[in-house]
Design a protein that fits this description.
It contains nine helices and eight strands. The N terminus is likely disordered. An eight-stranded mixed β-sheet has the order 1-7-8-6-5-2-3-4, with helices on both faces. By secondary structure, the protein is of the alpha/beta class.
Length: about 220
């Protein structure tokens, strides 16, 4: 039993390291061990394409702009669009309805073909619909409060294959109540997880829109 566990852990680690090594070969060693210099989010999605990722989830879709970019870059992508499009915080009912209509307009062909799967649920309800280790990647950009972000990371990570990528948006201190930075740091520290930031110089200076990510090397939780 012990030998099997050691071999399983070794395979798990190799899958993750293969992805990390590929990213480092493409962009070079991260500055300070963490920052990928002058890499925009759109550029980074080419890594998904080059690694052969074909199925992912975006948690927090809004008007569908980021989803549109993913479809434009990754051929034959199956993307699950998770968003309740209901009023929350500063986003009023009118605001969310406009976002929903915009999403339907710019992703019409993908929705009709089935490449895009619109899931109109809260994140922690939607995650139950997915099998463990079924996704190549997840991109988290939903509720930005600490509790919501850290639960999204915990729950959605189990749905990503080993060697797949867990990423998210808005790693910055934007307004009171935003907890992305604290949640990401807390999760990575608790799980001793190596993680990275896309260091687009313009975005770093403005302290806005920065993408964080890590390569999943964890066993899926049972149950």
């Amino acid at each position: 039993m012990a030998d099997r566990q050691v071999r399983a852990c070794a395979r798990l680690g190799k899958l993750a390291m293969d992805t990390v090594d590929y990213i480092k070969q493409k962009y070079g060693e991260p500055t300070n061990g963490k920052l990928l210099k002058n890499v925009r989010r759109n550029d980074f999605y080419h890594v998904f394409k080059e690694l052969g990722f074909t199925e992912g989830a975006e948690v927090g879709v809004g008007g569908g702009v980021n989803a549109r970019t993913l479809f434009d870059i990754i051929p034959n992508l199956k993307l699950h669009l998770v968003d309740c499009w209901l009023p929350i915080g500063v986003r009023t009912e009118h605001y969310q309805k406009r976002y929903y209509q915009k999403m339907r307009e710019i992703l019409t062909s993908e929705l009709e073909s089935g490449q895009a799967n619109s899931i109109e649920k809260w994140s922690l309800d939607a995650v139950r619909d997915f099998e463990n280790k079924s996704l190549d990647f997840v991109y988290i950009d939903a509720n930005h409060k600490f509790d919501s972000v850290i639960q999204d990371i915990i729950q959605w990570t189990s749905k990503v294959k080993r060697g797949g990528i867990v990423a998210g948006h808005d790693y910055h201190y934007y307004r009171k109540g935003y907890g992305v930075v604290m949640a990401v740091k807390a999760y990575m520290k608790a799980h001793r997880q190596n993680w990275y930031l896309l260091d687009n110089e313009k975005e770093i200076k403005k302290q806005t829109n920065n993408t964080w990510f890590f390569v999943n090397a964890r066993r899926a939780r049972r149950g």
